[in-house]
Structure formats: C-alpha cells, structure tokens
C-alpha cells in the first residue's frame, strides 16, 4: 500500500494533524522536556549527589535509559499513528484491548499532573508580577506560605485564595485556546515563540549571575567532584530518576508527539537533538542557580552547603526571592527568572494536556476544539477546587510525589515489558526506527530499553513503595497520604479501566502500519531494514 493509501485507510477518518516540519517537532519536543524540573530540580539533585561527579552517572543514565526509552516512545507513536491508547492498542494486535488500558493509564497520569502543574505556573506568573516591586519583603518563606498561599494544615478546604485563583484561571483559558487551535497552529506556534524567548531570558539570567560576588564559590560547590559518591547506589538511582522525569518519556507525551510526524520522518537524529538539548539546558540552569546561590551565601557569610531550600518550591519561591531582594538590579533578575519558569512550565503543560486531548479526540471522534474545551473545562474546575484553596500546597506536594514516583515509573516498566517481552515487538520497532532514520539503532538498543531500563526502574519503584509505606511522606498524616497519594493512583487506574471499556467512535484497528515488514523476513529477524524499506 502506498504512503497516501496508508494515511487514508479507514472510511470517513479525518486526516491526522501534523507538525509543519522537523524543526517544529524538535522545538515542541524540547519545549515539553524543558520544564520546571530542569530549573528547580537538577541543580539541587546534582549538588546533593556528588557535584561534578554526578555528571558521570547522569550521562550514563541519559545514554543507557533516557535515549533508549525516548526512541521506544517515538517508534510506538510514529509507527502506529495515534495517541497513547490508540498506539498501544495497535501495537498489541489481538491483545489490543488489554494494552489499550496502558495507554489510558498514561492519559490519566497526564490528566492528574495537569491539575497541579498548572498551579505552579500560576505561582510563577504571580511572582513575575511581584518581582517589579519585590512584594515578598524580607520574610520570603512567611510571604509564600502565609500571605500568598495562606496555607493550612493537611485536609480539604473550599477557602479559595484569590491571588492563586485569578492567575490559575487565566492560564487555563490560555491553555484551552492553544489546544483548540490544534497541533500546528497552537502547540507548535507557542513553542516556536516561547522556546527561543526562554533560552534568551535564561541565558541573560545566567550571564548576570556569573558576575555576582560569590558566584565562583557557588559554581565550585556545584561542580567540585566527590568521586566517593559514585560508590553509592542512591546516587545512580538519582541520576536515572532525573533523566527519566526530565525527558518527558513513558507517559504518553512523546508517543503522541511522534504520531504527528509525517510518515517519512527521521526519528532518531531529532531524538538525540532533543535529549542533549534538554540536558544542556539543565546544566545551564545549574550554572545560573548555583552562581546565584553563591552570591546569597556570600551575602549571608556562610558556605553554600549551609543554605536551605536548594530544590523545588523552596528554591524557586523562597530562596530566589530572598536573593533577588539583596542583589543589584534585583527586580530585573526576578522578572527573568520567574518569566523563564512560567514559559518553561507552560510549554510542558501543553504537551501534558495534548496527550489527554488526543486520546479523547480519537476515542470519541472529537475535533481538537471540542476536545480542548471539554477536557480543559473539566480539568480547570478540578484544578481550581483542589489546588487554589488554602490546602492546595500540601495537596500538590502529595499528588506530585505519587504521580511521578509511582505512576510514571510503573507506566515505563509496563510499556517496556509489554513491548519487548510479552508482545516481542522489539525487532519490529527497531526495524521501524532504522527504516525512517539516518542514525540506526542496533541490538544494544533492545538490551537497554528492554532489559536494563525496566530493571533499574523496577528497583526504583519497589524501593519507593517500601519507603512510602514504612516511612510515610513529609510527616503528613497517614489518612491524608492514603486519600491524596494512593487515592491519586487509584483514580488513575480506575479512569484507565473505564475509558478502556467505552466504545470507540471509529474502529482503531482499521489500520496498517507503514513501512510493512519485508515479506521474506520473519518478525523476529526484522531489525535490519532493506533499502526498499526507505521508500
């Protein structure tokens, strides 16, 4: 069957949306990968796990797990031309329905993540405005928890915080509008605009930070290697964890994004560009953050290691505002930092919600506009009810921990095990990558994505579950962790099951993968494409 015939196979099926070209796809994929975690998570994780020595396990993790799983997502999405539920169903063949549930599991994870991820962007937008007059004052921790978030004890509250509610509503409106415009006119266009702006803004921030008093001490604290840390298995787990969460892999994003590429599209070379661009931004973020922390430590007359709040919410919304208040030209620095945080978060949020929108479009025959409005409105209401209240901060912290450390890791393990061991589709996926790409993958890709990655991720998952059961989390009451943490996982599983049994508007199995496997080559030997496979 010709390429055009394959694209149109199936009666009354609308032509699939596409990126305008390779550059648009690369920018969108980088925009998804570069998010909040690059700025507020990587520098602290690197510092706490061997400093400069951490770059060794970090690069090993990138090459042995990050890129192989990224290629797996690309291969599944591009070959089977659909959102996560559609692509996994087609990958599963006769077992399609059971594997479709994995796709909906990933969609449900993205839906849950979108509910709280949007709130952090709302905080960044608020602090962008606060930077103009340094509204947080001298007590940045008290301002965040008390004045701004009005945080209360663990529980459930309907006491809304207007300073969070208003920017949250604005962001949800913007997200729905962008998704309604579609892949090329909406998601891609925003990334084409925001990603260069993000790089320029953050580069300016880094340059300014490098000329602050104490910047050299901050960089020494980050990059001075502690090679003894390499003997600690937890350091290696931290590296794999950082790569895994940073690249937007294994929860439907890259499957969905790859499905919007044209049939004859290079996959592996752009994948390398995306992976190394993401890591480059993380290192740039580390330089900027720790040069700034060096200045703060210099001002306080203490060592960098004695500072508190070096990662996450504490770094971005307590430590950095305190630094901005003390530095020359602080308001400009704050504007650049929180503007960068908001842009990085927004492009990542679009990718998360596009997974949900695409799944509903294909299952229920909706247009991008219909799916964006229906999914967006429901998500916005839940997001506002759960996270714009006085209990929003603790709810966000809890749900985020379970969704990432349990949900996404489990999703990656299942995807790898099903693809390589249950369905034995590794050779077919490898054949597909090599048929359309200039950088070819060999048998080592199967070993890395099919054996090494799930083993490491399995260890991460088991150790995390044991820790959460035995030690709890952050000192929160057990009933609260059960309701918000394990409850979030239960909702994800239930949602995946319900969406799997609902009827498709159009038969997703009316489809033929392209390029076809060579007739003379058994599937288990299909790893080396012939020249004809590049038609």
TrEMBL record:
Q: List where in the cell it is found.
A: Membrane
Q: Where is this region: Disordered?
A: 513-535
The cross-references to Pfam families, in alphabetical order and at most eight, read: SNF
- Provide the primary localization: membrane
- Please give the InterPro entries that the UniProt record associates with this protein: Na/ntran_symport, SNS_sf
The answer to keyword Cell cycle applying to this record is no
UniProt keyword annotations, A-Z: Membrane, Transmembrane, Transmembrane helix, Transport
Q: Kindly give the membrane topology term recorded for this protein.
A: Multi-pass membrane protein
Write out the transmembrane intervals. Answer: 21-40, 52-72, 104-130, 164-183, 190-211, 235-260, 272-298, 332-360, 372-396, 402-423, 444-467, 479-502
> Which PANTHER family does this UniProt record tie to the protein?
TRANSPORTER (PTHR42948:SF1)
* Protein name, UniProt field: Sodium-dependent transporter
């Amino acid at each position: 069957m010709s390429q055009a015939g394959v694209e149109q196979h199936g009666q009354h099926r609308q032509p699939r949306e596409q990126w305008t070209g390779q550059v648009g796809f690369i920018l969108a994929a980088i925009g998804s990968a570069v998010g909040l975690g690059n700025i507020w998570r990587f520098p602290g994780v690197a510092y706490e796990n061997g400093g400069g020595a951490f770059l060794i396990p970090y690069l090993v993790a990138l090459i042995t797990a990050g890129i192989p799983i990224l290629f797996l997502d690309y291969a599944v999405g591009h070959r089977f031309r659909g959102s996560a539920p559609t692509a996994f169903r087609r990958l599963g063949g006769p077992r399609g329905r059971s594997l479709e549930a994995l796709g909906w599991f990933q969609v449900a994870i993205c839906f849950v993540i979108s509910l709280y991820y949007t709130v952090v962007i709302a905080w960044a937008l608020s602090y962008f405005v606060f930077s103009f007059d340094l509204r947080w004052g001298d007590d940045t921790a008290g301002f965040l928890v008390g004045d701004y978030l009005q945080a209360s004890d663990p529980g459930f509250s309907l006491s809304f915080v207007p300073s969070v509610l208003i920017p949250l509503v604005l962001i949800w409106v913007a997200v729905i509008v962008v998704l309604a415009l579609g892949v090329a006119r909406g998601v891609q266009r925003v990334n084409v605009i925001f990603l260069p702006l993000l790089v320029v803004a953050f580069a300016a921030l880094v340059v300014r930070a490098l000329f602050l008093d104490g910047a050299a001490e901050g960089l020494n604290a980050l990059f001075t290697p502690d090679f003894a840390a390499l003997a600690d298995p937890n350091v290696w787990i931290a590296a794999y964890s950082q790569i895994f969460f940073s690249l937007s892999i294994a929860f439907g994003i890259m499957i969905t994004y790859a499905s919007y590429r044209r049939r004859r599209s290079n996959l592996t070379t752009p994948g390398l560009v995306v992976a190394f661009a993401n890591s480059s931004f993380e290192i740039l973020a580390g330089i900027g953050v720790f040069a700034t922390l060096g200045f703060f430590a210099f001002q306080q007359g203490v060592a960098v290691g004695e500072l508190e709040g070096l990662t996450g919410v504490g770094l971005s919304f307590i430590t950095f505002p305190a630094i901005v208040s003390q530095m020359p030209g602080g308001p400009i620095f704050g504007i650049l930092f929180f503007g960068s945080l908001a842009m990085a978060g927004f492009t990542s949020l679009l990718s998360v919600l596009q997974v949900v929108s695409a799944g509903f479009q294909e299952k229920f025959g909706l247009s991008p506009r219909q799916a964006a409005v229906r999914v967006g409105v429901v998500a916005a209401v839940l997001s506002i009810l759960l996270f714009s209240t006085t209990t929003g901060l603790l709810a966000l912290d809890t749900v985020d921990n379970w969704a990432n450390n349990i949900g996404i890791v489990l999703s990656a393990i299942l995807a790898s095990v099903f693809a390589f061991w249950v369905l034995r589709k590794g050779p077919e996926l490898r054949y597909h990558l090599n048929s359309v790409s200039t950088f070819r993958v060999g048998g080592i890709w199967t070993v890395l994505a099919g054996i090494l990655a799930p083993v490491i991720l399995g260890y991460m998952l088991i150790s995390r579950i044991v820790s959460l059961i035995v030690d709890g989390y952050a000192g929160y009451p057990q009933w609260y962790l059960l309701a918000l943490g394990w409850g979030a996982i239960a909702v994800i599983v239930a949602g995946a099951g319900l969406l799997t049994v609902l009827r498709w508007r159009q038969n997703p199995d009316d489809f033929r993968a392209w390029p076809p496997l060579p007739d003379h080559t058994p599937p288990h030997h299909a790893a080396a494409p012939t020249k004809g496979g590049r038609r």
